[in-house]
Amino acid sequence: MLGFKLDVPKREEITLRPIYLDVQATAPMDPRVLDAMLPYYTDQYGNPHSRTHAYGWEAEAAVEKARKHVADLIGAEDKDMIFTSGATESNNMIIKGVARFHKEKKNHIITTQTEHKCVLDSCRKLQEEGFEVTYLPVKQNGLVDLAELAQAIRPTTSLVSIMAVNNETGVIQPLKEIGELVKQHRGVYFHSDCAQAVGKIPIDVNEAKLDFVSISGHKIYGPKGVGAAYVRRRPRVRLEPILSGGGQERGLRSGTLPAPLIVGLGEACRLAQREMAADHSRVSALSQRLIDGITSRVTHIVRNGDPAGYPGCVNLSFSYVEGESLLMALKDVALSSGSACTSASLEPSYVLRALGAAEDMAHSSLRFGIGRFTTEAEIDFVIDRIVGVVTKLRDMSPLWEMVQEGIDLETIDWSQH
Amino acid sequence: MSAPTRAQILNLYTATLRTARTFSSYNFRNYFVRRTKESFRKNSDESDPAKVLELYQDGLKELEVLRRAAVVNRLYEGPKLVVEKERLGRAAGLGGGGAGMEASIGGGGQPTGSQNVA
C-alpha cells in the first residue's frame, strides 16, 4: 500500500476541568511569582550559605531581599523572620519550642477549639509530655470570648496561640484585643497562626503585640513547601529548636534554605502587599454575589461563622441535604466540605461543632473559597449548579417533603428498630 | 529619563493588554486583562511627572514579567475549564448540546486525592 501506516489520531473526548473554589486548601501560584523563581531553578543555583563564591552571594542576596518582603507584609524587621517549610512546621516549631524552652517554670498553654489541626496536634503531643493545655471554646459566631481567655491565663502559662483567620469559616479573631490582654501578663507569649490571614487582611505584629506568627507560602499565591515564622527579637523571645544542624536561621531552623522557594515566597508577599486592597474589594464583591445568588433562590441556608469574617471564605450549610451527596453531585466545582485534611473522613467538621452547629448542619456544609483569580462568570456558574443540585436533592428527600408540609422535625419521635 | 509621552504610555497599555490576553489559563488571562485595565485607569489622573515616570518604569518591568510568564503558561497549557465550554463548543463546532452533551463533557469531577492541609 502506502509503505507506511497512517496514524489518524483519535479525536480525544473533551474533558473540562472543574472550577476551583478551594483557595483555603491551596491557591494557584501567581505566574509572576513563578517568573521570579525560575532564575534560581536554572542559572543561579548557588547555596545561600556559601560564603566563598559569587554563586552563594547572589543566592544570599535574593534570600535577604525576600526576607525583607515577607517582613514588610506583617510590619516586622527582616531579622525577625525565619524561613520554614510551611505554616505547619512554623506552628510546630513555635508551640513545642516555647513550651519546652520554659518547661522548668511554666507548663501551661492556651489555644482554642477551632485552631488548625497542626496546632491542636502539637498541643496534644505536649500534653503527652506532661504539659497542661486549655482549649478555649468559641462563641456561636466563632470568636474567642476575651473574658474567658483572661480567666484562663495562669502564672504558669507560657503561650497563648490563637489563629487570625479560620480556615473553615473565615472568622477573624480580634488579635489586637487579644494581644492587649495577653501583654498584661508578664512572660506570656502570644502566637498567631496567620496562614489564612497574611496578605489578605492587614496584620501588624507590633499593633497586635504578637511574639510569633506562622506564615504559609501557598495560601498567598506563592510556592508550596515554603513558609515563614516570625520570632520576635526585641524583646527577645526564646524557644528550643526542633531541628539541630548547621545553625542556619539564628540556630532555630537548621538546614539549607531553598533559595528558589524563598524568592517565590518573597515575591508573593510583595505582590500581596501591593494588591491587598484591590484583591479584598474584588473578593468581597464576588462573595456577596455568591451569597446573594444562592440565598435568593434557595431557602433554609445557614451561613456558618461571623458574617464580618474574611469574605473569601464562605461556609454555608444546606438543611435537609447531605453534604457528601452534594459534593458528589457538584462534579463541575472543586469545593470541599471543610478543611482538606478532614474532608477525607466522613466526620463532621470539629470547627463547626465548636461553633455549636447541630450535627446534621455540620454534615451539610460547603466551603467556598474565593481568591484573586476567581471570575464573575465562575461565580454565576457555581450559583446555577448549587441551586440546581440542592433543589434536586431536596426534592428527593422525605424530610424536605415533611418540612414543606409544615411538620416540625424536632417533634418527631423516630422509632428505633 | 524624562516623563513618558502620552503615546508611550498608550503603547505600554496596549502591549500589556495584548500580552495579558496570551495567557492560556482562563483565570490568569482574565485576571491580568482586568488588572491591566484597572491599574492604568486608576493611575490615569496622576499628574506628578516623577510619579508618572516611576509608574511607567514599573509598567515596563511588569510587561517583561508578563511576557515571560505568558510563554511559560502556554507551554504547560492544561484542559479548559467548564465555564469556557460555550466558547470552546462554538470554536470546535460542537454547538447545540442539550442534556446528552452535558453528561459527556462533565468529565473531570471532583479531584480525588484529598489535598493535604487546608
UniProtKB/TrEMBL annotation, chain A:
Aminotransferase class V domain sequence ranges: 19-380
Gene Ontology BP term (one): tRNA wobble uridine modification
Cofactor(s) the protein needs: pyridoxal 5'-phosphate
Entry coiled-coil feature ranges: none
Reaction(s) this enzyme catalyzes, per UniProt: (sulfur carrier)-H + L-cysteine = (sulfur carrier)-SH + L-alanine
The enzyme's E.C. designation: 2.8.1.7
A single GO molecular function term of this UniProt record: pyridoxal phosphate binding
GTP-binding keyword on record: no
Pfam families registered for this protein in UniProt: Aminotran_5 (PF00266)
InterPro entries given in the database record: Aminotrans_V_dom (IPR000192), Aminotrans_V_PyrdxlP_BS (IPR020578), Cys_deSase_IscS (IPR010240), Cysteine_dSase (IPR016454), PyrdxlP-dep_Trfase (IPR015424), PyrdxlP-dep_Trfase_major (IPR015421), PyrdxlP-dep_Trfase_small (IPR015422)
Entry keywords, A to Z: Iron, Iron-sulfur, Metal-binding, Pyridoxal phosphate, Transferase
Record keyword Metal-binding present: yes
Any one of the GO CC terms: L-cysteine desulfurase complex
Functional summary from the UniProt entry: Catalyzes the removal of elemental sulfur from cysteine to produce alanine. It supplies the inorganic sulfur for iron-sulfur (Fe-S) clusters. Plays a role in both tRNA-processing and mitochondrial metabolism. Involved in the 2-thio-modification of both 5-carboxymethylaminomethyl-2-thiouridine in mitochondrial tRNAs and 5-methoxycarbonylmethyl-2-thiouridine (mcm5s2U) in cytoplasmic tRNAs.
Family of the protein in this entry: Belongs to the class-V pyridoxal-phosphate-dependent aminotransferase family. NifS/IscS subfamily.
Name of this chain's protein: cysteine desulfurase
From TrEMBL, chain B:
Domain of life, per lineage: Eukaryota
Any Pfam family hit: Complex1_LYR
Gene Ontology biological-process entries: iron-sulfur cluster assembly
Domain Complex 1 LYR protein per the UniProt entry, residue ranges: 8-65
Example of a GO cellular component annotation carried by this entry: L-cysteine desulfurase complex
Region feature Disordered, mapped onto this chain: 95-118
Stored InterPro entries: Complex1_LYR_dom, Complex1_LYR_LYRM4, ISC_assembly_LYR
Protein name (Swiss-Prot/TrEMBL): Complex 1 LYR protein domain-containing protein
